[in-house]
Amino acid sequence: MIPARPLDRFPIIRTRSVEQMRAALARVYVRPLLELKNRVSALDVLFNNFQFQHVGLSYIKYGAAIHLGFSETNFFSQRFPIHGKGEIIIGKNSAILTSDNSATISSNVSYKTNYDADYEHLVMRLDSKALTKKLAAITGQPIGKDLAMNPVPDLARPEAQSLRNIFAFLVGEISNAATLLPPLMLAEMEQALMVAFLCGNQHNYSHLLEQPPPSVAPWQVRRAEDYIAANWDQPIRLEDIVTATGVSARSLFRTFRQNRGCSPMAFVKQVRLRHAQQLLQSAQTTTTVTRVAFACGFDDLGRFSKDYLRAFGELPSAALHRGKGAASSQH
Fold first, then answer.
1. Residue range 11-128, CATH number
2. Average pLDDT, stretch 28-57?
3. For residues 312 and 244, what is the distance between their CA atoms, to the nearest angstrom?
4. How confident is the model at residue 326 (pLDDT cuts 50, 70, 90)?
5. CA 175 to each of CA 59, 124, 191: distance values in angstroms, whole numbers, following the listed order
6. Which of 29, 78, 155, 309 is a good FRET partner for 127, with 20 to 30 A between their CA atoms?
7. Residues 266-280: pLDDT tens digits?
8. Rounded CA gap, 161 and 294, in Å?
9. Domain boundaries, the chain
10. b or e along 149-158 (b: 16 or more beta carbons within 10 Å of the residue's beta carbon)?
């Protein structure tokens, strides 16, 4: 669930100044042409931004009817309106922005927007080079022609709904976390967003994501397992698994599921749960369930407890209690 003030722990600016707002947008996006409408002389801006390595998440409200013009950028972006009404204009095409729809902008594309005074939205930005590299890893195909997105997503597609759900979930997680999440979790959250963006939007390479992928050899599945086992405490990226196995991510995922009954990322969870079990069973005085969960890549303690119970038939707190008891009896 998206909080009332998304990403409020990561403020960029609070201002009524047009120039300050333009400068803030330039730092995160690109310096825009900006025109206030309806003879308004001041804004009432709230601009928050959280930055992964290659993906940025922003919340913006302007507090006044406004027209913006943006030149070409080196990133893709997608707008998720959450209140009010707006319009986006790309060339001769335009689309209305409300909480029921979305808009996607390709890199190297200029565009204009008009927003009503009560308009608010969340924006996802994705570095062009990183996104193209991710697409190549998924498809196993070289990306020659520039990736170009359909600017108006079909939100009835399950993949588009999944993207929206993942996006809303991660905005909520980052907004509500008491402290900054560990780097391993952030890296894998970022990967999930990039993959969901490529699958949830239609583009000139969508046909490669929709056709059945070829199968891979069993030894390549075992090599993927070996890579995951050796790097369980590091962010597991699709590009790294592809490099280790020499096959596309889609082919590997299909054969992995056929041979192991789960996806590679589900296998990652199994490996990390086993390491969590070892840490709890060999607990020291300072060991806590929270520390173990975070060390093993789990950011939600409730889900970690459920996954642990499903895997081992007991709660992690019980394993921790027994582990500390064993440690104290040895002293």
1. 2.60.120.10
2. 89
3. 30
4. low
5. 11, 15, 18
6. 155
7. 899 999 999 999 999
8. 29
9. 11-128, 267-329
10. bebbbeeeee
